[in-house]
Amino acid sequence: MAKKFLEISQVGIEFPTPNGVFCALRGVDFAINEGEFVSIIGHSGCGKSTVLNIVAGLYQATEGGVILDGKEVDEPGPDRAVVFQSHALMPWLSVYENVALGVEQVFKGRKNRAQMKSWIEHNLELVKMDHAMHKMPHEISGGMKQRVGIARCLAMQPKVMLMDEPFGALDALTRANLQDSVMEIQKELNTTVILITHDVDEAVLMSDKIVMMSNGPAARVGEILTIELPRPRERLALAKSDQFNFYRQQVLSFLYEKKGVVDFDEAKKQRAVPDQTKDTVEKIS
User: Which residues are in the ABC transporter domain (predicted)?
Assistant: First the structure.
């Protein structure tokens, strides 16, 4: 049975502003099983990245908290690796050296130099970048840079990989290829992933669950949609799938019908939900 090892429990956060306190999140509450791929989706300003930053330990929740594998998250740590929209590579270091930077910090005293070298090369091979390990960041494309960023995170062997719109700046073909690569790697390694995205098709294609956020301020979880599509997932086949389009419609309906609704219990009554969604849509109250 899957282990629920990441719990976001009644999380709220406030930020001071010149005009007073701004409440970004309130009562955000959900759990993630080990090995799950979970997307968080919502309109701009709904606090998606804020949730991710709290899980990463970059922000401290004002109320509630995060428990990872039985331990409270209160600071950044190598058990939570972040892939940003910007690749964030060190421009003066080679592809190999960028990955080595994290490996040397995490495995110091645990791996010798030869073991570290083998491990770095293995992770570059996973993302299909072993052929370019000695190139500098300015010598490779944007998609290749993101692959290096993913390799750097994987090489740290995190318990959770946090991805903040990592494909957002890429062209459509590169984006699709990288999505497929991430799904293959996630299946192989059984890594737990949280993906922040604006893209409905991306969320349905890649996820086991989609966490849908209400609009801010005081944003919260509106619904959680479980995606029961078989893996591996072929995008061309799914484009013709009634089940894929059903899930896609559920997310779109939430985003565009309920985007400004605060009382989700009342909104649920107002929108008729087909019988088949009863076991699919988990209501968060």
Answer: 6-240
Q: Where are the domains of the chain?
A: 4-74+199-283
CA-CA distances (angstroms) from residue 187 to 71, 208, 214, 219, 232? Answer: 25, 12, 30, 31, 8
* Best CA proximity match to 108, nearest among 133, 80, 130, 78: 78
Identify the CATH assignment for 4-74+199-283 out of 3.30.1450, 3.30.230, 1.10.760, 3.40.50.
3.40.50
User: pTM value?
Assistant: 0.86
